[in-house]
Design goal:
Elements: H1 3-64, H2 69-76, H3 79-82, E1 85-90, E2 93-98, H4 108-111, E3 113-118
Antiparallel strand pairs: 1-2, 2-3
Helix pairs in contact: 1-2
Amino acid sequence: MSDAGAATRTARTERGQHGQASVEVVALVPVVVGVVLTLLQVLAAGAAGEHAGHAAEAGAVALLQRTDPRAAARAALPDWEAGRMRVRVRGDEVSVRVRPRTLVPGLAGLLEHTARARAGAGS
């Protein structure tokens, strides 16, 4: 076998491996994008839960201070989230429900969080 033939086969093998690597990278792109989008959705849901808790606490404090608990709960949330929240006040309990932003329209209802806080000695 000549050195020229071996070199040609080696060059073909390297080109084939380079082409296979490119195909593998292209095949992985949708998987990586899916994982990143899923992580972002989980983070948004977690943030909604945290925001709901803060808003409920702010509403309960407002009840103790004899001010508007709904306004206090809304003020406790970032402006971009205030439009996706509901506040309910019953007696000394403030309940706040927050829906996170979602990439899939029907997913928001599944990922919403509700937090409750009570004003007074039992809280």
